[in-house]
């Protein structure tokens, strides 16, 4: 029994995730700094709260879905933040699903584990914190088919699983605090670089006289096969139903990819690991944003860096 669930961050992803919790029968209260986002929930009869602290005062479980590390840090530690009441907390489970850097996830998890429960949960003790970012975009959030990659204690993960499955179709336990965030940024870094590799190879192939559709068939039956070639091909006309077939509309925005690569870059610097392709990819995707393509799907990198050549 999760009791009252507080949901903070009602943007493209969070609004859909919170709606799925309401649909599943949870008692949800919400907060967002954007009043219009809250009005929609008030219209369904969902209580709205003015600050994260007000949410914490009345919730047993908290879910946050915010843009980036600084927003999550503010919502936890800022004036009227979740932890504003000092070291006594009512919520016994706090789940952050935002994509942020693992170092910030670990910092917040440590702050939470210094708190004591003032609630009525059996056993009392220390509140539990999970970093649980998601794979899958707005459509998966709407359909309740997200994948959660989760860091924190295994006990917290097992306890939270039914709640996560009201918003998603699968969960993967990744280990201790921050490991969910680490998994998410590493996944997106691999996806960014594989998209660049496939785009570059398909462009070179076309210049050498082989059609992208034929070369894609070769890749997909050979060792170059990957998600960017067989499920999300970046060349217009090669696959139906992917962003490249509709002028790179929808999908995963280039600005979100640039943001996630920035997280990977700063994490790499912090732990002293050389990641030359991460830096190169971040340059390329942030260049696309500067050129005004920030809202296009990230596979538009093919058109802007490599094409000019028709099938
Ligand atoms: P979004 O910008 O649409 O929504 C963020 C929401 O947080 C907004 O409603 C904003 O008003 C609110 N907010 C910002 N600061 C706040 C604060 N201090 N207090 C309360 N509310 C605040 O972002 P999104 O697309 O929903 O993404 C959320 C997170 O999920 C990001 O970390 C993103 O990287 C990640 N993500 C997004 C996608 C996607 O396809 N959109 C996919 C996977 C993961």
CATH architecture of the largest domain: 3-Layer(aba) Sandwich
CATH homologous group name of the largest domain? NAD(P)-binding Rossmann-like Domain
Report the mean per-residue pLDDT as an integer: 94
Helix content: 40-55%
Characterize the overall form.
Answer: elongated
Discrete helix count: 13
Number of strands: 10
Look at the helices and sheets and give the structural class: alpha/beta
What fraction of residues sit in β-strands? 5-15%
Strand order of the largest sheet: 2-1-3-5-7
The main sheet comes to: 5 strands, parallel
User: Secondary-structure element sequence?
Assistant: EHEHHEHEEHEEEHEHEHHHHHH
**The CATH topology of the largest domain, please?**
Rossmann fold
List the uncertain runs: none
Gyration radius, rounded: 21 Å
Query: Could you name the CATH class of the largest domain?
Result: Alpha Beta
Q: Ions, cofactors, ligands: which are bound?
A: nicotinamide-adenine-dinucleotide
Number of domains: 2
Measure the end-to-end span. 56 Å
């Amino acid at each position: 029994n999760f009791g009252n669930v507080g949901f903070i961050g009602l943007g493209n992803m969070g609004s859909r995730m919170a709606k799925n919790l309401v649909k599943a029968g949870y008692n949800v209260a919400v907060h967002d700094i954007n009043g219009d986002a809250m009005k929609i929930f008030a219209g369904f009869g969902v209580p709205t709260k003015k600050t994260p602290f007000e949410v914490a005062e009345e919730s047993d479980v908290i879910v946050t879905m915010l843009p980036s590390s600084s927003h999550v840090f503010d919502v936890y530690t800022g004036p009227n933040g979740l932890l504003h009441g000092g070291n006594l907390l009512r919520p016994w489970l706090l789940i952050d699903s935002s994509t942020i850097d693992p170092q910030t996830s670990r910092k917040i998890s440590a702050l939470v584990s210094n708190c004591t429960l003032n609630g009525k949960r059996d056993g009392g003790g220390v509140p539990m914190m999970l970093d649980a970012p998601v794979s899958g975009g707005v459509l998966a959030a709407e359909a309740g088919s997200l994948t959660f990659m989760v860091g924190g204690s295994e006990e917290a993960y097992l306890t939270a699983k039914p709640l996560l499955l009201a918003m998603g179709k699968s969960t993967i336990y990744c280990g201790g605090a921050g490991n969910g965030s680490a998994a998410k940024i590493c996944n997106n870094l691999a996806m960014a670089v594989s998209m660049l590799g496939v785009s570059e190879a398909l462009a070179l192939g076309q210049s050498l006289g082989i059609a992208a559709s034929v070369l894609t068939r070769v890749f997909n039956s050979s060792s170059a096969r990957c998600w960017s070639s067989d499920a999300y091909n970046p060349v217009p006309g090669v696959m139906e139903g992917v962003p490249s077939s509709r002028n790179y509309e929808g999908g995963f925005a280039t600005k979100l990819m640039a943001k996630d690569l920035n997280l990977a870059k700063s994490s790499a610097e912090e732990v002293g690991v050389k990641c030359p392709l991460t830096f190169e990819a971040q340059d390329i995707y942030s260049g696309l944003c500067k050129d005004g393509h920030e809202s296009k799907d990230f596979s538009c990198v093919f058109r802007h860096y490599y094409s000019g050549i028709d099938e």
